[in-house]
Structure formats: C-alpha cells, structure tokens
Amino acid sequence: MDRNTFLGGSLLGVIIRLVLLSIVVGVILSALGITPRNFFYQIEVLLRRIYDLGFETFDWVLGYLLLGAMVVVPIWLIARLINALRRSKDPD
Question: Span 23-46, mean pLDDT?
Fold first, then answer.
C-alpha cells in the first residue's frame, strides 16, 4: 500500500483538509463552551467516576458476602460437626 492510498490523497491535501476541519470543529466546540482545559478536566472526572464506581461495586459485594457468611458459615460448621459425630458413632 502506498502513501496516497493510506492517507486518502496527497500529503499536502490531507493536511489542508485536516486543518480546515479542525478549525470548523474548534469553532463549534467553542460556541458550545467547551475549551481544551474543560474538555480534559471532564475526561479526568469521568475516569475518576468510573474508577470509583468499580470500587463501590467491590464494597457492595463485600458487604453482602459478609452478611451472608454470618448465616452460611455457622450452619455449614454445625452440619460438618453433626456429620462427623454421626460417622464416629457408626461402627463401619
């Protein structure tokens, strides 16, 4: 594959189109009140919220795990002890 096929035209033509398109998009974003500083700040906030959401999920799961284990583990332990006592009484 040659350079013109990869870029979609001549190098100078592609650069001119990208510059013009960037200016148009920049004007539109500026009209919407979006600045480069604001844009990167919002990306940082989004990534922080996703990070926090992931750890809130672990906190949520851990809470339910501990709550369920308060019931399940003692019942399991009692069942194992009763099973062990039955085996020791059977003269097999």
Answer: 90
